[in-house]
Amino acid sequence: MPESQAGVLDATARRELAREISRLARASAQSVLRAAPIAPVPPARRIGFTGPPGVGKSTLVGKLVERRAAQGVSVGVLAIDPASPYSKGAILGDRIRMDQASGDPRVFMRSVSSRDSQDGMCNNVADILCAMEAHHFNEIVLETVGVGQAEHAVKALVDTVVLLMQPETGDAIQALKAGILEVADIIVVSKSDLHGAPKMREVLASTVRFGAQRAVGWTVPVLGVSVETGKGLDELEAALTAHAAWVAANRTGAETQARRACYRVQDLVLRRLDDQLAALSPADYERPVAELYQRVLEGLQQT
Amino acid sequence: MSLAGKRILIAKPGLDGHDVGAKIIALALRDAGAEVIYTGLRKSPQYIARVAVEEDVDAVGLSILSGSHVDLVRDTVRHLREAQGGNIKIFVGGTIPQEDVEPLMSSGAAGVFNASQRIEDVVAEVDRLLDDA
Question: Can you give the pLDDT at residue A2?
Protein backbone atom coordinates (compact mmCIF):
# COMPACT_ATOMS: atom_id res chain seq x y z
CA MET A 1 0.00 0.00 0.00
CA PRO A 2 1.26 3.51 -0.78
CA GLU A 3 2.62 5.32 2.25
CA SER A 4 3.66 8.49 0.43
CA GLN A 5 2.38 11.99 1.00
CA ALA A 6 0.77 12.05 -2.44
CA GLY A 7 -2.75 13.36 -2.15
CA VAL A 8 -2.33 14.51 1.45
CA LEU A 9 -3.36 18.15 1.19
CA ASP A 10 -2.20 21.03 3.38
CA ALA A 11 -4.56 23.93 4.18
CA THR A 12 -3.50 25.89 1.08
CA ALA A 13 -3.98 23.01 -1.35
CA ARG A 14 -7.28 22.09 0.28
CA ARG A 15 -8.57 25.63 -0.12
CA GLU A 16 -7.28 25.80 -3.69
CA LEU A 17 -8.93 22.56 -4.81
CA ALA A 18 -12.19 23.50 -3.06
CA ARG A 19 -12.29 26.78 -5.00
CA GLU A 20 -11.38 25.16 -8.27
CA ILE A 21 -14.26 22.68 -7.88
CA SER A 22 -16.69 25.55 -7.19
CA ARG A 23 -15.44 27.40 -10.24
CA LEU A 24 -15.85 24.35 -12.47
CA ALA A 25 -19.28 23.46 -11.08
CA ARG A 26 -20.46 26.95 -12.08
CA ALA A 27 -18.60 27.30 -15.37
CA SER A 28 -20.61 27.53 -18.59
CA ALA A 29 -19.89 25.20 -21.47
CA GLN A 30 -18.27 28.06 -23.37
CA SER A 31 -15.94 29.06 -20.56
CA VAL A 32 -14.80 25.45 -20.15
CA LEU A 33 -14.01 25.32 -23.86
CA ARG A 34 -12.13 28.60 -23.72
CA ALA A 35 -10.04 27.52 -20.73
CA ALA A 36 -6.57 26.12 -21.32
CA PRO A 37 -6.60 22.32 -21.46
CA ILE A 38 -5.75 20.68 -18.16
CA ALA A 39 -2.20 19.36 -18.22
CA PRO A 40 -2.37 15.58 -18.15
CA VAL A 41 -1.47 13.95 -14.85
CA PRO A 42 -1.05 10.27 -14.01
CA PRO A 43 -4.63 9.08 -13.56
CA ALA A 44 -5.85 8.11 -10.11
CA ARG A 45 -7.78 4.93 -9.60
CA ARG A 46 -11.40 5.97 -9.90
CA ILE A 47 -14.25 4.12 -8.24
CA GLY A 48 -17.90 5.04 -8.73
CA PHE A 49 -20.76 4.19 -6.37
CA THR A 50 -24.30 4.34 -7.63
CA GLY A 51 -27.73 3.04 -6.68
CA PRO A 52 -31.17 4.28 -5.68
CA PRO A 53 -31.70 6.93 -2.98
CA GLY A 54 -31.50 5.57 0.55
CA VAL A 55 -29.67 2.39 -0.44
CA GLY A 56 -26.70 3.37 1.74
CA LYS A 57 -24.13 4.71 -0.70
CA SER A 58 -22.80 7.48 1.52
CA THR A 59 -22.62 5.22 4.55
CA LEU A 60 -20.68 2.59 2.62
CA VAL A 61 -18.40 5.14 0.94
CA GLY A 62 -17.70 6.75 4.32
CA LYS A 63 -16.75 3.42 5.86
CA LEU A 64 -14.65 2.32 2.91
CA VAL A 65 -12.79 5.62 2.69
CA GLU A 66 -12.10 5.48 6.42
CA ARG A 67 -10.54 2.03 5.96
CA ARG A 68 -8.53 3.09 2.90
CA ALA A 69 -7.15 6.13 4.71
CA ALA A 70 -6.16 3.96 7.68
CA GLN A 71 -4.15 1.84 5.24
CA GLY A 72 -2.28 4.94 4.07
CA VAL A 73 -4.26 5.51 0.87
CA SER A 74 -5.18 9.10 0.02
CA VAL A 75 -8.71 9.49 -1.30
CA GLY A 76 -10.61 12.31 -2.95
CA VAL A 77 -14.39 11.97 -2.72
CA LEU A 78 -16.92 13.76 -4.94
CA ALA A 79 -20.50 13.21 -3.80
CA ILE A 80 -23.33 14.44 -6.02
CA ASP A 81 -26.75 15.16 -4.55
CA PRO A 82 -29.87 16.19 -6.44
CA ALA A 83 -31.02 19.80 -6.60
CA SER A 84 -34.61 20.75 -5.83
CA PRO A 85 -36.44 21.19 -9.13
CA TYR A 86 -38.39 24.07 -7.55
CA SER A 87 -35.88 26.34 -5.87
CA LYS A 88 -32.73 24.89 -7.51
CA GLY A 89 -31.41 24.84 -3.98
CA ALA A 90 -30.15 21.61 -2.46
CA ILE A 91 -29.47 19.86 0.81
CA LEU A 92 -26.12 18.15 0.36
CA GLY A 93 -26.38 15.48 2.99
CA ASP A 94 -23.78 12.89 2.02
CA ARG A 95 -21.16 14.21 4.40
CA ILE A 96 -23.21 13.47 7.46
CA ARG A 97 -22.73 9.76 6.77
CA MET A 98 -19.01 10.13 6.16
CA ASP A 99 -18.15 11.51 9.53
CA GLN A 100 -15.21 9.40 10.55
CA ALA A 101 -13.50 9.59 7.19
CA SER A 102 -13.93 13.25 6.51
CA GLY A 103 -11.66 14.44 9.33
CA ASP A 104 -8.69 12.37 8.10
CA PRO A 105 -5.78 14.30 6.52
CA ARG A 106 -5.60 11.73 3.72
CA VAL A 107 -9.17 12.42 2.72
CA PHE A 108 -10.63 15.28 0.73
CA MET A 109 -14.38 15.24 0.52
CA ARG A 110 -16.63 17.49 -1.47
CA SER A 111 -20.41 17.56 -2.06
CA VAL A 112 -21.87 19.11 -5.18
CA SER A 113 -25.39 19.69 -6.41
CA SER A 114 -26.56 18.13 -9.65
CA ARG A 115 -27.94 21.60 -10.54
CA ASP A 116 -29.53 21.41 -13.97
CA SER A 117 -27.62 18.37 -15.14
CA GLN A 118 -29.82 15.85 -16.95
CA ASP A 119 -27.85 12.74 -16.10
CA GLY A 120 -27.60 13.04 -12.32
CA MET A 121 -24.01 14.28 -12.53
CA CYS A 122 -22.95 17.85 -11.81
CA ASN A 123 -21.90 20.28 -14.50
CA ASN A 124 -18.36 19.71 -15.78
CA VAL A 125 -17.97 16.59 -13.65
CA ALA A 126 -15.27 15.25 -15.97
CA ASP A 127 -13.21 18.42 -15.46
CA ILE A 128 -13.77 18.33 -11.70
CA LEU A 129 -12.45 14.78 -11.51
CA CYS A 130 -9.37 15.84 -13.52
CA ALA A 131 -8.85 18.80 -11.17
CA MET A 132 -8.93 16.36 -8.24
CA GLU A 133 -6.55 14.03 -10.03
CA ALA A 134 -4.08 16.91 -10.36
CA HIS A 135 -3.70 16.74 -6.57
CA HIS A 136 -2.39 13.17 -6.86
CA PHE A 137 -4.88 11.27 -4.75
CA ASN A 138 -4.26 7.54 -4.87
CA GLU A 139 -7.95 6.97 -5.35
CA ILE A 140 -10.93 9.05 -6.36
CA VAL A 141 -14.45 8.06 -5.36
CA LEU A 142 -17.48 9.38 -7.21
CA GLU A 143 -20.84 8.95 -5.55
CA THR A 144 -23.98 9.60 -7.53
CA VAL A 145 -27.71 9.08 -7.19
CA GLY A 146 -28.75 6.29 -9.50
CA VAL A 147 -31.36 7.87 -11.70
CA GLY A 148 -31.76 6.93 -15.35
CA GLN A 149 -28.69 7.91 -17.28
CA ALA A 150 -26.43 8.39 -14.27
CA GLU A 151 -25.16 4.82 -14.48
CA HIS A 152 -23.95 5.27 -18.04
CA ALA A 153 -22.27 8.55 -17.19
CA VAL A 154 -20.56 7.03 -14.17
CA LYS A 155 -19.36 4.13 -16.31
CA ALA A 156 -17.63 6.56 -18.65
CA LEU A 157 -15.95 8.44 -15.84
CA VAL A 158 -14.58 5.77 -13.51
CA ASP A 159 -12.60 2.53 -13.70
CA THR A 160 -14.84 0.47 -11.45
CA VAL A 161 -18.60 0.88 -10.97
CA VAL A 162 -20.07 -0.42 -7.72
CA LEU A 163 -23.86 -0.72 -7.85
CA LEU A 164 -25.74 -0.87 -4.55
CA MET A 165 -29.10 -2.59 -4.25
CA GLN A 166 -31.55 -2.83 -1.36
CA PRO A 167 -32.34 -6.18 0.18
CA GLU A 168 -35.87 -6.32 -1.23
CA THR A 169 -36.68 -8.52 -4.15
CA GLY A 170 -38.86 -5.95 -5.90
CA ASP A 171 -35.72 -4.04 -6.73
CA ALA A 172 -34.26 -6.83 -8.82
CA ILE A 173 -37.02 -6.48 -11.38
CA GLN A 174 -36.61 -2.71 -11.40
CA ALA A 175 -32.93 -3.21 -12.03
CA LEU A 176 -33.61 -5.50 -14.96
CA LYS A 177 -36.05 -3.01 -16.44
CA ALA A 178 -33.70 -0.08 -16.18
CA GLY A 179 -30.78 -2.09 -17.48
CA ILE A 180 -28.54 -0.76 -14.75
CA LEU A 181 -27.13 -4.16 -13.88
CA GLU A 182 -25.12 -4.16 -17.10
CA VAL A 183 -22.97 -1.24 -16.04
CA ALA A 184 -21.99 -2.71 -12.68
CA ASP A 185 -18.53 -4.19 -12.19
CA ILE A 186 -19.36 -5.10 -8.61
CA ILE A 187 -22.83 -5.42 -7.11
CA VAL A 188 -23.38 -4.86 -3.42
CA VAL A 189 -26.55 -5.81 -1.58
CA SER A 190 -26.43 -3.24 1.18
CA LYS A 191 -27.77 -3.60 4.72
CA SER A 192 -27.10 -7.30 4.37
CA ASP A 193 -27.88 -7.85 8.04
CA LEU A 194 -31.53 -7.24 7.14
CA HIS A 195 -34.09 -9.86 6.27
CA GLY A 196 -34.34 -10.47 2.53
CA ALA A 197 -30.68 -9.84 1.75
CA PRO A 198 -29.68 -13.46 0.98
CA LYS A 199 -32.64 -13.83 -1.37
CA MET A 200 -31.73 -10.59 -3.13
CA ARG A 201 -28.15 -11.73 -3.57
CA GLU A 202 -29.32 -14.98 -5.06
CA VAL A 203 -31.61 -13.27 -7.57
CA LEU A 204 -28.95 -10.78 -8.61
CA ALA A 205 -26.23 -13.42 -8.88
CA SER A 206 -28.36 -15.57 -11.15
CA THR A 207 -29.16 -12.51 -13.28
CA VAL A 208 -25.60 -11.27 -13.77
CA ARG A 209 -24.45 -14.75 -14.67
CA PHE A 210 -25.97 -14.08 -18.10
CA GLY A 211 -25.06 -10.38 -18.19
CA ALA A 212 -23.07 -8.32 -20.65
CA GLN A 213 -20.00 -8.18 -18.43
CA ARG A 214 -19.46 -11.90 -18.84
CA ALA A 215 -18.71 -11.38 -22.53
CA VAL A 216 -15.66 -9.27 -21.68
CA GLY A 217 -14.29 -11.82 -19.24
CA TRP A 218 -15.09 -10.26 -15.88
CA THR A 219 -17.35 -12.11 -13.50
CA VAL A 220 -19.41 -9.58 -11.58
CA PRO A 221 -19.32 -10.46 -7.89
CA VAL A 222 -22.54 -9.98 -5.92
CA LEU A 223 -21.59 -9.19 -2.33
CA GLY A 224 -23.62 -8.70 0.81
CA VAL A 225 -22.26 -5.83 2.88
CA SER A 226 -23.43 -4.52 6.22
CA VAL A 227 -21.70 -1.37 7.40
CA GLU A 228 -23.60 -1.82 10.65
CA THR A 229 -21.89 -5.13 11.48
CA GLY A 230 -18.82 -4.68 9.26
CA LYS A 231 -19.57 -7.93 7.49
CA GLY A 232 -18.60 -8.05 3.82
CA LEU A 233 -16.27 -5.02 3.86
CA ASP A 234 -13.14 -7.16 3.48
CA GLU A 235 -14.76 -8.95 0.55
CA LEU A 236 -15.64 -5.62 -1.07
CA GLU A 237 -12.07 -4.38 -0.76
CA ALA A 238 -10.80 -7.65 -2.22
CA ALA A 239 -13.23 -7.33 -5.13
CA LEU A 240 -12.09 -3.75 -5.77
CA THR A 241 -8.47 -4.93 -5.85
CA ALA A 242 -9.34 -7.81 -8.17
CA HIS A 243 -11.20 -5.50 -10.55
CA ALA A 244 -8.32 -3.02 -10.58
CA ALA A 245 -6.03 -5.86 -11.67
CA TRP A 246 -8.53 -6.92 -14.31
CA VAL A 247 -8.78 -3.36 -15.65
CA ALA A 248 -4.98 -3.06 -15.77
CA ALA A 249 -4.75 -6.27 -17.79
CA ASN A 250 -7.73 -5.75 -20.07
CA ARG A 251 -8.29 -2.04 -20.70
CA THR A 252 -5.79 0.27 -22.33
CA GLY A 253 -5.26 3.83 -21.16
CA ALA A 254 -6.29 4.99 -24.63
CA GLU A 255 -9.67 3.27 -24.33
CA THR A 256 -10.29 4.88 -20.97
CA GLN A 257 -9.29 8.30 -22.26
CA ALA A 258 -11.50 7.91 -25.33
CA ARG A 259 -14.50 7.00 -23.20
CA ARG A 260 -13.97 10.03 -20.94
CA ALA A 261 -13.39 12.39 -23.87
CA CYS A 262 -16.60 11.14 -25.46
CA TYR A 263 -18.55 11.85 -22.28
CA ARG A 264 -17.05 15.33 -22.04
CA VAL A 265 -18.04 16.28 -25.57
CA GLN A 266 -21.51 14.85 -25.10
CA ASP A 267 -21.95 16.73 -21.82
CA LEU A 268 -20.91 20.06 -23.37
CA VAL A 269 -23.10 19.63 -26.46
CA LEU A 270 -26.14 18.61 -24.40
CA ARG A 271 -25.75 21.68 -22.22
CA ARG A 272 -25.58 23.90 -25.29
CA LEU A 273 -28.70 22.17 -26.50
CA ASP A 274 -30.46 22.82 -23.19
CA ASP A 275 -29.57 26.51 -23.51
CA GLN A 276 -31.01 26.62 -27.02
CA LEU A 277 -34.25 24.98 -25.94
CA ALA A 278 -34.57 27.23 -22.91
CA ALA A 279 -34.30 30.25 -25.20
CA LEU A 280 -37.40 29.25 -27.16
CA SER A 281 -40.65 30.99 -26.22
CA PRO A 282 -44.17 29.51 -26.17
CA ALA A 283 -44.87 31.41 -29.40
CA ASP A 284 -41.91 29.65 -31.04
CA TYR A 285 -43.55 26.33 -30.39
CA GLU A 286 -46.42 27.26 -32.70
CA ARG A 287 -43.94 26.99 -35.58
CA PRO A 288 -43.56 23.67 -37.42
CA VAL A 289 -41.26 21.17 -35.74
CA ALA A 290 -38.97 21.00 -38.78
CA GLU A 291 -38.39 24.74 -38.59
CA LEU A 292 -37.64 24.65 -34.85
CA TYR A 293 -35.31 21.73 -35.36
CA GLN A 294 -33.41 23.70 -38.00
CA ARG A 295 -33.23 26.76 -35.78
CA VAL A 296 -31.87 24.81 -32.81
CA LEU A 297 -29.25 23.15 -35.00
CA GLU A 298 -28.16 26.55 -36.27
CA GLY A 299 -28.05 27.85 -32.73
CA LEU A 300 -25.69 25.04 -31.79
CA GLN A 301 -23.34 26.12 -34.55
CA GLN A 302 -22.86 29.57 -33.07
CA THR A 303 -19.96 29.85 -30.69
CA MET B 1 -34.10 34.00 -4.58
CA SER B 2 -30.78 35.79 -4.40
CA LEU B 3 -29.38 32.93 -2.35
CA ALA B 4 -29.20 31.00 -5.64
CA GLY B 5 -25.70 29.62 -6.11
CA LYS B 6 -24.68 30.40 -2.53
CA ARG B 7 -23.26 27.58 -0.44
CA ILE B 8 -23.97 27.47 3.27
CA LEU B 9 -22.81 25.04 5.94
CA ILE B 10 -25.20 24.46 8.84
CA ALA B 11 -23.24 23.07 11.75
CA LYS B 12 -23.88 21.90 15.31
CA PRO B 13 -20.81 22.47 17.47
CA GLY B 14 -20.60 21.28 21.03
CA LEU B 15 -22.69 18.86 22.99
CA ASP B 16 -26.35 19.73 22.63
CA GLY B 17 -28.42 17.09 20.92
CA HIS B 18 -31.28 18.95 19.30
CA ASP B 19 -31.18 19.85 15.65
CA VAL B 20 -34.78 20.53 14.65
CA GLY B 21 -34.01 24.25 14.45
CA ALA B 22 -30.87 23.65 12.40
CA LYS B 23 -32.78 21.46 9.96
CA ILE B 24 -35.63 23.95 9.60
CA ILE B 25 -33.16 26.72 8.78
CA ALA B 26 -31.37 24.38 6.35
CA LEU B 27 -34.62 23.72 4.50
CA ALA B 28 -35.60 27.40 4.46
CA LEU B 29 -32.21 28.31 2.98
CA ARG B 30 -32.56 25.57 0.39
CA ASP B 31 -36.00 26.87 -0.54
CA ALA B 32 -34.40 30.27 -1.03
CA GLY B 33 -32.09 28.66 -3.58
CA ALA B 34 -28.96 27.94 -1.54
CA GLU B 35 -26.94 24.74 -1.57
CA VAL B 36 -26.91 23.68 2.06
CA ILE B 37 -24.54 21.21 3.69
CA TYR B 38 -25.40 19.93 7.15
CA THR B 39 -22.75 18.47 9.45
CA GLY B 40 -24.89 16.54 11.89
CA LEU B 41 -24.70 16.76 15.69
CA ARG B 42 -21.77 17.30 18.05
CA LYS B 43 -18.98 18.48 15.80
CA SER B 44 -15.79 20.19 16.91
CA PRO B 45 -15.02 23.74 15.70
CA GLN B 46 -11.91 22.34 14.01
CA TYR B 47 -13.94 19.79 12.06
CA ILE B 48 -16.52 22.42 11.12
CA ALA B 49 -13.80 24.75 9.83
CA ARG B 50 -12.31 22.03 7.70
CA VAL B 51 -15.66 21.06 6.20
CA ALA B 52 -16.43 24.74 5.52
CA VAL B 53 -13.20 25.16 3.56
CA GLU B 54 -13.51 21.86 1.66
CA GLU B 55 -17.06 22.66 0.71
CA ASP B 56 -16.04 26.21 -0.22
CA VAL B 57 -19.06 27.71 1.50
CA ASP B 58 -19.95 31.40 1.64
CA ALA B 59 -21.21 31.15 5.21
CA VAL B 60 -21.37 28.87 8.22
CA GLY B 61 -24.50 28.85 10.36
CA LEU B 62 -23.78 27.58 13.87
CA SER B 63 -26.75 26.24 15.82
CA ILE B 64 -25.99 26.22 19.54
CA LEU B 65 -28.38 25.44 22.38
CA SER B 66 -25.88 24.38 25.02
CA GLY B 67 -25.00 27.81 26.41
CA SER B 68 -21.34 27.68 25.40
CA HIS B 69 -21.94 29.77 22.28
CA VAL B 70 -19.28 32.40 22.99
CA ASP B 71 -16.43 29.89 23.28
CA LEU B 72 -17.65 27.80 20.37
CA VAL B 73 -17.94 30.81 18.07
CA ARG B 74 -14.47 32.06 19.03
CA ASP B 75 -12.97 28.61 18.41
CA THR B 76 -14.71 28.27 15.08
CA VAL B 77 -13.47 31.70 13.95
CA ARG B 78 -9.92 30.78 14.96
CA HIS B 79 -9.98 27.41 13.19
CA LEU B 80 -11.52 28.94 10.08
CA ARG B 81 -8.64 31.42 9.89
CA GLU B 82 -6.10 28.63 10.35
CA ALA B 83 -7.75 26.66 7.55
CA GLN B 84 -7.55 29.76 5.32
CA GLY B 85 -11.28 30.28 5.49
CA GLY B 86 -11.12 33.66 7.19
CA ASN B 87 -13.39 35.17 4.54
CA ILE B 88 -16.25 32.76 5.35
CA LYS B 89 -19.04 34.50 7.26
CA ILE B 90 -20.41 33.07 10.47
CA PHE B 91 -23.91 33.42 11.76
CA VAL B 92 -25.20 31.99 14.99
CA GLY B 93 -28.63 30.75 16.03
CA GLY B 94 -30.05 29.18 19.15
CA THR B 95 -30.78 30.10 22.72
CA ILE B 96 -28.66 33.22 22.86
CA PRO B 97 -29.31 35.72 25.68
CA GLN B 98 -29.47 39.33 24.52
CA GLU B 99 -26.37 40.29 26.51
CA ASP B 100 -24.30 37.73 24.58
CA VAL B 101 -25.09 39.17 21.17
CA GLU B 102 -22.45 41.90 21.41
CA PRO B 103 -19.63 39.52 22.54
CA LEU B 104 -20.55 37.17 19.69
CA MET B 105 -20.46 39.96 17.13
CA SER B 106 -17.11 41.20 18.40
CA SER B 107 -15.77 37.62 18.30
CA GLY B 108 -16.40 37.51 14.58
CA ALA B 109 -20.06 36.56 14.07
CA ALA B 110 -21.74 38.42 11.22
CA GLY B 111 -25.26 37.82 12.54
CA VAL B 112 -27.01 36.36 15.59
CA PHE B 113 -30.52 34.88 15.51
CA ASN B 114 -32.86 33.52 18.15
CA ALA B 115 -35.99 31.40 18.19
CA SER B 116 -38.38 34.35 18.38
CA GLN B 117 -37.44 35.52 14.88
CA ARG B 118 -39.50 34.62 11.85
CA ILE B 119 -37.80 32.22 9.45
CA GLU B 120 -38.34 34.57 6.50
CA ASP B 121 -36.54 37.31 8.40
CA VAL B 122 -33.61 35.03 9.16
CA VAL B 123 -33.32 34.04 5.50
CA ALA B 124 -33.59 37.68 4.39
CA GLU B 125 -30.87 38.69 6.84
CA VAL B 126 -28.53 35.89 5.69
CA ASP B 127 -29.20 37.00 2.15
CA ARG B 128 -28.29 40.58 3.05
CA LEU B 129 -25.11 39.50 4.89
CA LEU B 130 -23.94 37.47 1.90
CA ASP B 131 -24.76 40.25 -0.54
CA ASP B 132 -22.31 42.55 1.22
CA ALA B 133 -19.51 40.18 0.32
Answer: 47
CA distance B83 to A214: 48
**CA–CA separation, B53 vs B49, rounded Å?**
6
Name the residue of chain A whose CA is nearest to B39's CA.
A96
Please tell me whether residue B51 adopts helix, strand or coil conformation. helix
pLDDT score recorded for residue A182: 77
Q: Which of A144, A150, A99, A135 is nearest to A15 (CA)?
A: A135
Q: What is the C-alpha to C-alpha distance for residues A30 and A271, in angstroms, rounded to an integer?
A: 10
Segment-wise mean pLDDT, segments of 10 residues, chain A, 303 residues = 74 95 89 76 90 89 95 94 78 80 89 78 89 94 76 88 82 62 88 88 81 75 94 97 95 90 88 87 90 91 76
**Contacts of residue B2 in chain A, CB cutoff 8 Å?**
none
From chain B residues 24-43, the ones with a CB under 8 A of any chain A CB are 26-27, 29-40
Contact assignment for A18 to B55 by CB distance below 8 Å: yes
Task: Provide the residue ranges of all domains of chain A, joining segments of one domain with +.
Answer: 11-251
**Mean pLDDT of all residues in B34-46:** 91
Nearest CB to A22: which of B27, B47, B56?
B56
C-alpha span between B49 and B81 (Å, rounded)? 8
Position A87 scores a pLDDT of: 75
Q: How far is C-alpha A2 from the chain's CA centre?
A: 24
- Beta strands (DSSP E) in B1-118 are 7-11, 35-38, 59-64, 89-94, 111-114
User: Domain map of chain B by residue range?
Assistant: 7-126
- pLDDT above 90 covers a percentage of chain B that reads 77
Report the CATH fold assignment for B7-126.
Rossmann fold (3.40.50)
Give this complex's ipTM: 0.89
Please check whether residue B47 touches A, CB under 8 A.
yes
How far is the C-alpha of A183 from the C-alpha of A211, rounded, in Å?
10
Distance CA B76, CA B80 (A): 6
Q: Do A22 and B7 touch (CB under 8 A)?
A: yes
- Position B60 scores a pLDDT of 97
CATH code for the part of the protein at A11-251: 3.40.50.300
Specify the pLDDT at position A1: 46
Which helix (H) or strand (E) covers residue B130, if one does?
helix B119-131
Contact A268/A31 with Cβ under 8 angstroms? no
State whether residue A88 sits within 8 Å of chain B by CB. Answer: yes
Among A102-106, A178-182, B67-71, B104-108, name the one with the lowest average pLDDT. Answer: A178-182
